[in-house]
Amino acid sequence: MQRRGHEAPAARARRVMIARRLRLTGPGGGALGATVLLCLVVVGALAPWLAPGDPLDMVARPLTAPFTDPRFPLGTDQLGRNVLAGLIHGARVSITVGGAAAAAAIGVGMVIGTCAGFAGGRLDEALMRVTEAFQTVPTFLLALALVSVLGASAANVVIAIGLSSWPPTARLVRAEVLRLRGADYVDAARVAGRAPLAIAFFEVLPGALQPVVALIGITVGEAILVESALAFLGLSDPNLISWGGMVANGRALLRSAAYLVIFPGIAIAIAVLAVTLAGDGLAARLGLTGVR
Amino acid sequence: MTFNLCLFPRRALLLSGVAAFATGLAATGPALAQDIAMGGTLTVAADTEPRSLNPAIVASNGVFYVASKIVEPLAEMDYETGLRPLLAESWEGSEDGLTFTVTLREGVTWSDGAPFTSADVAFSAMQVWKPLQNIGRQIFANLEAVETPDDLTAVFTFSEPTPAQLIENAMPAVTAVLPRHLLEGQDLGEAEYNAAPVGTGPFVLAEHKPGEFYRLTKNETYWDDGKPYLDQILYRVMPDAGAKAAGLETGDIQLTAFSAVPLTDMARLDALDDVSVIPGGYEGITYNITVDFNHRTEELSDPVVRKAIAHAIDRDFLVDVVFLGYATAATGPVPPTAGDFYKADTPAYEFDVDKANAMLDEAGYARGDGDTRFSLRLRPAPWFQQTRDTGDYVRQALAKIGIDVEIVTADPGGHIAAVYTDHDFDLAIGSPVWRNDPAISTTILYQGGLPAGQPFANQWGYDSAAMNDIIARGQTTMDSGERIEVYNAFQDLAMEDLPILFLTHFTFITVARDEVQNVANNPRWATSSWADTWIAPAE
Which of A264, A265, B139, B535 has CA atoms 20 to 30 A from the CA of B190? Predict the structure, then answer.
């Protein structure tokens, strides 16, 4: 991981530091993170019932201040869209897109890492050079380029984040696979005549999975941030409301209606912190604190 | 905080704007020479940084904003006289419409010292305006030659009758004159001149630091004695709207044009003691917001569907919410700022959702699953906040009549290619410009038979013999009164056929610090020469 010289480790260190200051690390923090995360998932899942209708609809007087109208507790934006409804539906987008993108990244990373580690030789060399090539481009820039080319839709955002965030998983899985492929039980499987691919994916990979768990938190957290950043730059699905898009929309009114930026900003911060804490907590519970 | 202003923002803001405008005018009136402070640097914000500063090739407001101070047209628009002579002193069209004679101003020199003559006009017209310029190609399509009997006379001859009124109306935007002695024989598309133009205007380009600024300095040999009043104009490249608003407040910049400051900030800025919001000065370059229908889409080829969509969109809501009152609801393709050309009583489609639904029911577009009749893809032009916001509103409005709209976004280049070349859209939100005469940039939105790839023109797949006939008649009708009648018929037919739907007309807004004088004193002010702009010294 030491080659990965850009934002992720620093950002992660920052997040962990904040969590430490807040005394949120450890199992307590993990439980808190998991609880908040669960709440967000529930809110997202129930969005059509909690805030019926399209959150992009212009429903009220523009720029109603927050806490003034009980029907729009967090106010409305400059086109009269309900900020609270936007946050609720935005949770859905952030968590689905973030989760799906992280799943794609981890999936791709596991397959490539396992193949490279287990096959060794030229395939390993080739795959690792490709991984390094991906790592030389900052994650966000690569995602930005991919979405610009593919077009702005939710599926493309998932693909773009997935394709730009898999290298850490691949390298971690490869290292674990390299450690395990000489283990006795793997030799036993080989002697028993199982096919190499079956051995790689059914014998070696499960053993290498535990450290990957430690990466889930950071990968999902990063995916949510990248999705928000893409939306901030207007590169997310325009038919879906997203927290990053809400921040971008409110930016022009920072001086006169700062709440339009503050509320979605808080939502992004809470979601990322919750995911990170939950991931850390899970890793701690599995005794993996040293792996990273 | 401005939350409470927004229920009736139009009245509140326009009133204060008009007040500011009036004070501006009062201060500018026929000021005595000793009242005007000479010198100083005017610092303004530039939103974009055009690569070419050659207004004779690229007639666009982004280019004019800087280049109109350096390279002058034959005449400029004027609130009182309609047209104010610049490089031309007078002009006259022949009765048959086949010649147009321009008498040029005496004693004008290029900023490099060479004399300005009719040869420069002939060169610009034949080598640049007619073959190269986006608008000139239409206006001067039938221009055959420009004769130069003497240094101060240029005679335009046409193969088909071309109305003098059209040429007059086109002069401010289309006739920027280039120096023949610097450009003859060069590849004009690639000439270095495009980045460092030399002109007859009140200012010369002193320096362009990419990403930072353009610096224009006074042309000491300008033909209009005593002008310009300013020593320098500094265009600071500032793409961020928030930074511009802050710059106006602190005095770092003195002026922003083209509504560069977010509309939502206008009320806050106008409330400041030393900053004014000035809505005038853009009448000659009124923008419009349109819904463009792709007639290749089966549902949209049905006029009933297009009319139902027109009934489903609340133009007043758009004016109040998206434009915060800084716009007017459209009655047709010609805006009220067009004066004589404007016709108010065109076929109208009042906002009536029930009626729209009934029309679609009757035409057999039944509601299927989830109440949807059919689905359309909408491409909002990405360049203005207002075009994007209008797209969001149209999506919501059409949901109420059972049309499911999916918004598709792209960067400006991708948008232009998708809509105007590939026709890959069902609906688009466009922002065509009104340029002072229907034949300059408006009828082309309705004219049939244009090649794919020509932007900001009829790429909708609409081709009507009646419409083409009216447009052709307008181009060859000589009498000004008759031309107005032809274009009245054009507006009626445009609204009857409804190949595209004009929603709102909007003129931009200038925000300036109060020390800047003579702001917005002509209908194309931001794209005019600023020779008479000056800065009042601090009291």
Answer: B139
Q: Which residues of B touch A57 (CB under 8 A)?
A: 396, 399
A12 lies in a domain? no
For residue A53, list chain B residues with Cβ-Cβ distance below 8 A: none
Cβ contact, residue pair A56, B241, below 8 Å: no
- A54, A59, A63: best to mutate for the B interface, most B CBs within 10 A: A63
Instruction: Tell me what the mean pLDDT of segment B476-493 comes to.
Output: 93
pLDDT for res A280: 85
Cβ contact, residue pair A63, B407, below 8 Å: no
DSSP symbol at A119 = H
Q: How far apart are CA B85 and CA B73, in angstroms?
A: 9
Cα B288–chain centre separation: 9
Interface of B with A (CB under 8 A): 1-3, 6-7, 241-242, 245, 262, 264-265, 268, 317, 321-322, 382, 385, 389, 391-393, 395-396, 399, 406-411
Structural domain harbouring A101: 21-39+95-285
CATH of the domain at A203: 1.10.3720.10
Predicted interface score ipTM higher than 0.85: no
Q: Are B136 and B150 in contact (CB under 8 A)?
A: no
Interatomic CA distance for residues A87 and A270, integer angstroms = 12
Cα gap B534→B537, rounded to integer Å: 9
pTM confidence score:
0.81
So what's the pLDDT on residue A16?
66
- A221 assigned to some structural domain: yes
Q: Using an 8 Å CB-CB cutoff, list chain B residues near A62.
A: 6, 321
Residue A233 lies in a domain: yes
Angstrom distance (rounded) from CA B538 to CA B526: 24
Q: Would you write out chain A's pLDDT as a tens digit for each of its 292 residues? A: 344 434 455 666 776 666 666 655 556 788 899 999 999 999 999 999 999 888 988 888 888 889 998 889 999 998 899 999 999 999 999 999 999 999 999 999 999 999 999 888 899 999 999 999 999 998 899 999 999 888 888 999 999 999 999 999 999 999 999 988 888 888 898 898 888 888 888 888 888 888 888 888 889 999 999 999 999 988 888 899 999 999 998 888 888 889 999 999 999 999 999 998 998 888 888 776 544 4
Nearest to B264 among A65, A80, A256 (CB): A256
Work out how many domains chain A is built from and give that number: 1
Among the partner residues B321, B395, B407, nearest to A80 by beta-carbon distance? B321
Give domain status of residue A29, yes or no.
yes
Residue B278: Cβ-neighbour burial (10 angstroms; 0-12, 13-18, 19+):
buried
CB contact under 8 Å between A238 and B1, yes or no, is no
With H, G, I as helix, E, B as strand and everything else as coil, classify residue A201. Answer: helix
